[in-house]
Amino acid sequence: MKTRLTTLILTFTLGLVCSFFAPSASAQDLKPYYNVDDKGVWVDGYDPVAYLQDGKAVKGSPAFTVLYKGAKFQLSSKAHQEAFKKDPEKYLPEYGGYCAYAVGSYGEKVEVDPETFSVKDGKVFLFYNKYFNNTLKDWNKDEAKLHANAEKNWAKFKHAK
User: Fold this and answer.
1) Is pLDDT of 79 > 80?
2) Tell me, what's the pLDDT at 33?
3) 115 with 130: CB under 8 angstroms?
4) One domain, residues 156 and 108
5) H helix runs in the chain, sequence order
6) What angle do CA 51, 53, 59 make, to 5 degrees?
7) Nearest in space to 136 (alpha carbons), one of 100, 91, 97, 98
8) Which residues contact 29 (CB under 8 A, 6 or more apart)?
9) Does 154 lie in the same domain as 102?
10) pLDDT band at 158; cut points 50, 70, 90
11) What is the mean pLDDT of residues 94-105?
12) Which candidate, 100, 130, 131, places its Cα nearest to that of 117?
């Protein structure tokens, strides 16, 4: 009886210790869903709330970080932090913060320039803009078709794991 109780206590303790030290979602695990760096920080630390509330790209601060679905979102102020906590899905750019044009045109997840964005119907879209290749311009040429394709393509990423 005493041995059984000791085994039960050891098993419970070991399980508790293992769950305490078990790693949370790694940045690699988040990649199908969010454009995060190796530390799990979303889109170079830019504030997702600023796109909608301020109409501009604003660098967030580690002091106002919110952990959401394993990703670290850095906000630029306490007010933005509270707004994000209240309704994170409202502020998240489409396609996890990957380039909307690349998702729509090629079905690929491509990094973005966080300062190249578009807001339409309360949704934020981010774009690649480097080496004389501003994909926002290409997106604007055929937005309806690219958006429809992006929705189909992104659904595949959301379910892949």
Assistant:
1) yes
2) 77
3) no
4) yes
5) 2-21, 27-30, 48-53, 78-86, 88-91, 100-105, 135-141, 143-159
6) 45
7) 100
8) 70
9) yes
10) low
11) 96
12) 100
**How many Å apart are CA 126 and CA 115, to the nearest integer?**
8
Residue 125 lies in a domain: yes
Q: Which residue has the tokens 């070991």?
A: 14
Residue scoring higher pLDDT (31 or 20):
31
Looking at the fold, whether 101 and 157 belong to one and the same domain comes out as yes
Cα 33 to its chain centre, rounded Å, is: 6
Q: What is the pTM of this model?
A: 0.79
Examine residue 1 and state whether it is found in any structural domain, yes or no. Answer: no
Task: Domain of residue 35: give its range.
Answer: 26-90
Partners of residue 74 on adjacent β-strands: 65
Question: End of a domain among 36, 60, 90?
Answer: 90
Residue 46, token pair as written in the block: 């830019």
Closest CA to 127 of 95, 93, 99: 99
Residue after which a domain boundary falls, among 90, 122, 137: 90
